[in-house]
Amino acid sequence: MSIHPILQIEGLSLAAKSKETLVNNVSFSLGKGESLGLVGESGSGKSLTLRAILGLLPRGVTQTGGMIKSGASSAMVFQDPRGALDPLCPVVNQLAEVVYYRQQVNRKASRIIALELLERLGLPDSLKRSDRYPSQLSGGQCQRVVIAMALACKPGILLCDEPTTALDVTVQRQIIDTITDLQHELGFAMVFVTHNLAIAANLCSRLYVMKAGRIVEHGDTLDLLQNPTDPYTQMLIDSVLPVPELEGSGA
Ligand SMILES: Nc1ncnc2c1ncn2[C@@H]1O[C@H](COP(=O)(O)OP(=O)(O)OP(=O)(O)O)[C@@H](O)[C@H]1O
């Protein structure tokens, strides 16, 4: 548990309209600037937990128990970057719109801040023009724009829902490095959802393992990966394929 948490979740339970429990008695806390990983198989309730923190549960899902206490604003980076952008609006305009509403500056200032954010995220100058639409960007570029949008909200907590799953491995690495650099620079805390243990291990100091809506194990990342006590955590670790030693590599 964090000593001075900026996010506290206690006994969170979520259910579908059919009364089926989807998230069951989930508790964790997050300290300022800390990174916490939620890992587990598909359908284990990771995304719904993030959405509950953001206050954006999908239609048909309700909170049936527990409480969420947050001392900072949250912003979310979604799994499908292209789907998170409006295909009919130039990317720079979309970003400027978020700045305008969230930072409450005038239109001219919001555009200047949007251009600075695009630069900070390492996007090419061509994207600053108003004739560039999401369909003209690569998946990695779209994800950088989505991250810029989240940062435009000046979040104290960045909620990342498998932000690299839809990207190829080299781009995944670049995006992870970008998020790490930005976190060091801006100091936001992060809840990072992934089913990729290697990514979670690189980014997060603590891991929570979810299965069928429940937390089955949690702990400091290295300790948990080296000494898992729950068979499901062990199974997740065992399912990571090792890179075979290359013949004649001299290793
Ligand atoms: N709107 C909804 N109505 C009913 N059930 C839902 C709804 N959204 C999600 N669920 C169910 O809730 C459970 C948890 O879903 P969730 O999206 O949180 O899983 P996840 O761990 O994030 O999976 P993934 O890694 O595939 O994104 C799943 O069984 C899913 O089918």
From TrEMBL:
Domain ABC transporter: 7-237
Recorded topology in the membrane: Peripheral membrane protein
First-listed, main subcellular location of the protein, grouped into a coarse class: membrane
Keyword ATP-binding: yes
One of the record's GO molecular function terms: ATP binding
InterPro entries for the chain: AAA+_ATPase, ABC_Ni/Peptide_Import, ABC_transporter-like_ATP-bd, ABC_transporter-like_CS, P-loop_NTPase
Keyword ATP-binding: yes
SUPFAM superfamilies: P-loop containing nucleoside triphosphate hydrolases (SSF52540)
Alphabetic keyword roster: ATP-binding, Cell membrane, Membrane, Nucleotide-binding, Transport
Cell location: Cell membrane
Protein family according to the UniProt entry: Belongs to the ABC transporter superfamily.
Protein name, per record: Peptide ABC transporter ATP-binding protein
Organism: Paenibacillus helianthi
